[in-house]
Amino acid sequence: MKQEVTVYTTTTCPVCSMLKNFLEINEVPYKEINVDFHPLALIKLIAKTGKFTVPQTNFNGQWISGFDPVSILKVIIDNTGSD
To answer: Which of 25, 30, 32, 53 lies deepest, with the highest CB count within 10 Å?
Structure first.
């Protein structure tokens, strides 16, 4: 199964930068949606997650809030192992 990863960020968020660096180091391709430039995406994100914070990452429908490397690696491994 191909991983679809979407990261919701803001321009000034240092944790967002940490998350993106982590994904790049682990060679996980992702789509970034900067909610500073896409306010409708922010409203939809809040409706889906119930959270007003970034980063929010969607891995094939599974949401991870903030920068949680353990949870991210678990999702990556679980999705890679199911190919």
So the answer is: 30
